[in-house]
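Listing S7. Sequence submitted for prediction.
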Amino acid sequence: MELSSSQRKTIRHQFDSFCKKVLREQCRDCIREAQRRLQYEISFSDLSPQELDQLYVMDEYSIDSHYFSVMGYEVAVKNDLVSTALAALPEKKRDIILLAYFLDMSDKEIGETLNMVRRTVQYHRTSSLKQLKEILEGKADDK
């Protein structure tokens, strides 16, 4: 049985209409899915540094660090250049730098710990930083 021209045209229109409905519903499903994702998902670029830090773990090994002992604390320094520069400082100056920058102590707290005046601690810290800068610049020039 052969279909007439008008029947073929009707079938073609019905098929076109069906295809359009399927595509329209698929598009709506995609839009709904995208809106649902926007509610529950966040881009990595929108995360704060603290939130990003919670997403991974870095393995740390003791052989990757150089350790300095200061006032009963073990201070780990990971950077080879910095640890070499710190080792070149006199012990008192190295202790002040380690307490100030690695253990976050104020000049007053360092003074109380080392039995020094706060102003003396500040003087030693400032001169130590200048000395460290010279050492590190010399090491950088060597490379």
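Caption to Listing S7: primary sequence and predicted structure tokens for the chain studied. Strands lie at 66-70, 73-77. Residues 25 and 39 are 21 Å apart (CA to CA).
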